[in-house]
Write a structure and sequence with these properties.
The chain is about 35% helix and about 25% strand. It is of the alpha/beta class. α3 crosses α4 and α4 packs across α5. It has twelve helices and 14 strands.
Length: about 350
Amino acid sequence: MMKRKTSKASMSQPEILVAEDLCKNYGPRHALQGLSFSLKAGRVLGFLGPNGAGKTTSIRILTTILEPDSGHFIVDGISSAHPEQIRSRIGVLPENLGFPRQMTGIEYLTYFGQFYGRTSAEAKDYGQTLLENVGLQERAKSLIGSYSHGMRQRIGIARALVNDPAVVFLDEPTLGLDPRGQQELLELIQRIARERNTGVVLCSHLLSEIEGVCDDVVILNLGQIVAKGTVAEVIGRVQHNIILRNAVRIQVPPDSAAQARKILKEIPNIKKTALIGEMEGWLRVELVAPVNGKSAEAYQTTNNVLGALIHAKIPILSFEVDGGRLQDVFLHLTEETIK
C-alpha cells in the first residue's frame, strides 16, 4: 500500500505548491517573467513549453537548484526562504538520471532511505514497499545494470518517492519508452498522485500524454505563462476565444471516407473537407466563419453534418472540435516561437 492515501484528487484539496511572481534573468535575457501558479495535493500538473520557454529554469528554481531574482514559492507550507527544508519535502526524477549499475534495486533504495534518516531496517522495508508500488518487486535483488529502460524509469520514480515527498517533479519520464511502456508509466504516475495524495509536476513533450494523465496544465512561452488551468479549461478557453472552433474532425470507417466527403460537399456553409487520416478514416471539415461571430450558425452546420452522415447510414466513430486537443492549443499559443 502507498503511504499517503486518499480516495481521489479533489479541487478541495489544499494547495501543496504555490509559486508567486518568480523571475530569473541571465544577463539581458529574461528567462522567466512573473511565473505564478498553484498545485493541489493529489493532482498532476502538466508543465509545457517549447525549447527556451523557461521550463528548465522554472523547475530548477522550484527544486532549489537556482535562486530566483525575485518572487517566492511555497512547498507544503515551507517558504522558499528555507531551501534545505523544501528539499526534504520534494522528489525529483531528472531527464537524464544516472544509475549505479552494480547495485541491486533494493540496495539502491535502501541507501537513499538511510540518507533521509531511516535506519537500515526501516529503509530496506520501505524500499521493498516502493518496489511493489512501481511493479519491480520481482527484480528487487537484480542488478540495476540488467534493468530495461522502462524499469530504470520505474526505479527512478521509486527513488523520487523514498522521502515520502509532498511534491514530485518528473522530467520526461516516458522518453524512449514504447507505447505500452508509456501508458503503464503514465498510469503509475496518476496512481502515485491519487493514492499518495502527492502533487506531481510532469514535464513532457508528448502532449497526448499530458492531456490523458494531467488534471491541470501550465503552458510557458518566452518565459511567460500563456495559459494555465485545468486541461479542459485551457482547451475550452482557446476554442471559445480564438478561430479554432471553425472546423471539426470526424472519424468514419475508412472504406466510407470517400462517400462521406461526397455527402459533406453538398451541405451549405462547408468551406472544405479533407481526408487527414486515410488509414483511420479521419475527415477535417472546415466551416464558413459565422456572420458577426454568431456561434449558433456553426452549431447548426455541425448538426447538419452529423445528421447527413447518420441519414446516409455512415457510422460516426469519433467527433471532436478542431482545436479540441491540447496539442492544437499548444501549437497555437506558441506558434511564433516554433516557426
